[in-house]
Amino acid sequence: MISAKDLKNPHVVRRDLLASLVVFLVALPLCVGVAVASGVPAELGLVTGIVGGLVVGLLPGSKLQVSGPAAGLTVLVFEAVKEFGLSTLGPIVLAAGLLQVVLGLARFGRWFRAISVSVVQGMLAGIGLIIVLGQVYAMADLEQPGSGLAKLAGLPGLAIDIVTDQEALTAFGLGAGTIAVLLLWPKLPARARVVPAPLAAVALATAVASLAGLRPAVADVNGLLNAIDLPGGAEFSRLADVAVIGTVLAFALIASAESLFSAAAIDRMHDGPRTDYDKELVAQGVGNTICGALGALPMTAVIVRSAANVQAGATTALSRVAHGLWLLLFAALLPAAVGIIPLAALAGVLVHAGCKLVPAKEFGPLWREHRGEAILLAITAIAIVVTNLFEGVVLGLLLAVVKSAWETSHVQLTTHELTGGRVVVTLTGNATFLRLPRILEQLEKLPQDQPIELDLTGLRHLDHACRVALENWARRHNNAEIEPVTIRQ
């Protein structure tokens, strides 16, 4: 929240207002681009950005995080709009927001930090791959296939269309040029980089298209008020649908995880107060509840805008609130400016953003040092591409639990023979059903013509399945003329 003390300090106010302009310039093309890629009117992305600034910016949680429409939810929103219709998006977002508020009030915010980092990275990588695969079609002003596998299968045909169709080639050139500017911009002198890279890339592509007399596809702009469609009772009745409930859960889970992981990253970038995760989760929920009531896109805290906020020198929440005000003024006073931006350029921005979600540089070291985590990341990402976002994340979470259970169920079996031929078998560690095949395999190799004592006193944990299996083995292992195996617990 903004304190009166901060507002009385002209140095703080001046610095944070300047930072807010930087964040606004970064957020503007991303708000529009995410909306278009999600299959909704461009203005709805601006509505979410405005709510993220003016509402969430005033709530406690993180002082420097900036919220708005995120590339990470693009795939899920696109699928929801395609399956349930744009009119149902508002109730879905509103219900997800209310769920976030409840989770925050119940102090579940801190538990999102317990989600496996590899699953989150795999989720973001899968989302990034879907964004890239989809937006390369948008770069050529062509319709993208529905599923991830269809997008992959359609790439050869896309290449042929680009080469043989002059309009597709022109649009793709604008998108590729946008990506080139984004890649080269960080290498320019600091004075030139005062303008944020996304804004510079989109502005240059728009200027080239205008000066060259090109006619690429552009966003359909109807004005802010015309784009807002308040959901009614009929739309809210769709929340009783099981498929819609699953989408609500996916929205809430993914938006919360992305926001709180972003908070952890931003906390490492500054020396100010740390994020209160429960309050931040409530703030994100309030923002999504309002966005849902307005029929707009869902929001998360966005690392790109948040990092720009910190790097621009912001120290209070004034910067993120003011950036929402600049978005509101732009949407109210200059809506037609959005209608001249080539969709191919916005697609180029999202292809670049999607590539940054794929942890290509981190995968090699992760594979060398923690191979199991790398496999978990890859499986989650591939599952998202092959199936869908929700099923891919659920699979990743289940595999993370199984992996954790497997790694913690270490058990060691040792044998030594006492004087007189008695064999003592000692089990130590954690004996669970996951290790049962290995345990029984070793026990069944023991001689059947000697007295055997099974010592379980060194076990920290023995689950029911293991206990029953060991008792059954003890009863039937030795020959009839030898005394049965004894168990010491």
From TrEMBL:
InterPro entries: SLC26A/SulP_dom, SLC26A/SulP_fam, STAS_dom_sf
TM ranges: 17-37, 84-106, 118-140, 168-185, 239-261, 281-304, 324-353, 374-402
Signal sequence range: none
Topological type in the membrane: Multi-pass membrane protein
Every SLC26A/SulP transporter domain range: 14-380
Pfam families per UniProt: Sulfate_transp (PF00916)
Superkingdom of the organism of origin: Bacteria
Protein name: SulP family inorganic anion transporter
Organism: Streptomyces pakalii
